[in-house]
Amino acid sequence: MKYLSYGIAAVLVFFGFVFIAGSQGVPLRIVFGVILLGAAAAFVYMARVKPQPSQTTIVQKVDLSGDMNLEQIKCQNCGGVLDKDSIEIKAGAIFVNCPFCGASYQFEEAPKW
Q1: Consecutive H or E run containing 73
Q2: Buried-most residue among 49, 67, 104, 108 (CB within 10 A)?
Q3: Which structural domain, as residue segments, surrounds residue 113?
Q4: What are the tens digits of pLDDT across the range 34-89?
Q5: How far apart are CA 19 and CA 107, in angstroms?
């Protein structure tokens, strides 16, 4: 895409100089030649400018019902202690990927009654 822009700019520069050099005193041809040179400069500028990468920050908030105590979460399969990288929230459900035994399952909290 970059080389295509440079090629178009080269063609515009050529025709811009042709219109300016062959104007024979006609101001409209000079104006058109200057416009072609400006368009060529715009093509070169657009080819050289690199787009800035955009960053998107996603914040997920979980609304908890009732009081919560902080406890360690252990794998249901091997009993290994899971860290924050092992837990993933998809569509409001909590999924666990155990780094110790490789088990993957949906985390379900038992009712406390």
Answers
A1: none
A2: 104
A3: 71-113
A4: 999 999 999 999 888 877 788 898 887 877 777 767 678 888 888 888 888 888 88
A5: 73
Same domain? For 10 and 42 the reply is yes
Is there a domain that residue 106 lies in?
yes
Report if residue 81 sits inside a domain.
yes
Q: Hey, what are 24's tokens?
A: 């024979």
Q: Six-digit token pair at 34? A: 């200057």
Residue 32 counted as domain residue = yes
pTM tops 0.90: no
Residues in CB range of 44: below 8 A, 6 or more apart: 5, 6, 9
Domain count, the chain: 2
